[in-house]
Write a structure and sequence with these properties.
The chain is of the alpha+beta class and about 240 residues long. It is built from seven helices and eight strands; from the N terminus they run H-H-H-E-E-E-E-H-E-E-E-E-H-H-H. The relative contact order is 0.19.
């Protein structure tokens, strides 16, 4: 190859390196989603599915009344002679016409009896009262003890269902042998480690949900999805 041809090849190679360099650098520095962000993304998808499910008309009728939502994208229940269930979730809370959050929580239950099988549920818990919201902020909530809990109406009704009177009302979409989820006796606790990781520093549920002083851009789609139904506020004491 002549020296002239070598120069041409060199120029082409240099131009290609310049063109590919930024893209290659961007690919090299692209980081995988954190566990917290993955949970936030799944929570958004879960909430959207609940809103679209034709069998959850009760959820759509009463979601505008909720002061907050606890969204559990994947609650796993396992049982043989004894069983338990649980999973991580996120809480978002109403702030006028907008929403604050998410704050990360863990949910766990324990049960005994003749059980067999495994199921996986998506669960959305509507926080209907100030008492319910305050128990979430307190750091430890046992449903049915610290606050009342009820299963939301399922199925396609002929008319609007009465407004739930419980502090917490839960809806579930389940797959498996159990055919549904129950949250009676469930313990809900804030996950301080995940909150601090997501907001990169000290982060209490009250700062996140009530003051709204902590934000993460990764939560925008989740908050926007919940916000579309926030047309009125109803507070029941």
């Amino acid at each position: 190859m002549s020296s002239r041809n070598l120069k041409v090849v060199g120029v082409v190679a240099f131009a290609a390196a310049l063109a590919l360099g930024p893209a290659s650098a961007q690919a090299a520095t692209r980081r995988p989603l954190s566990e917290q962000q993955e949970l936030v993304n799944r929570a958004r998808a879960t909430f959207a599915r609940f809103r679209e499910d034709p069998g959850l008309t009760g959820f759509r009728e009463h979601e505008r009344d909720a002061l907050a939502f606890l969204i559990i994208p994947k609650a796993v229940r396992v049982g043989l002679l004894f069983g338990g269930s649980g999973g991580p979730g996120v809480v978002v809370a109403r702030n006028g016409r907008s929403w604050n959050g998410p704050s990360f929580y863990s949910v766990g239950t324990a049960s005994f009896g003749l059980q067999a099988g495994v199921d996986v549920s998506e669960i959305v818990v509507a926080v209907m009262t100030r008492r319910g919201l305050n128990t979430l902020l307190s750091g430890h909530t046992r449903l049915g003890v610290d606050a009342s809990v009820a299963a939301g109406p399922a199925g396609i009704g002929a008319g609007r269902a009465p407004r739930p009177t419980a502090d917490f009302v839960y809806y579930s979409r389940a797959k498996g042998l159990y055919g549904g989820a129950t949250l009676e006796g469930a313990v809900i606790r804030p996950d301080h480690e995940w909150n601090e990781a997501y907001y990169r520093g000290a982060a209490s549920p009250r700062e996140i949900l009530i003051a709204g002083s902590l934000r993460n851009t990764g939560s925008r789609r989740l908050l926007a999805t919940v916000e579309t139904s926030s047309l009125r506020v109803a507070v029941r004491r």
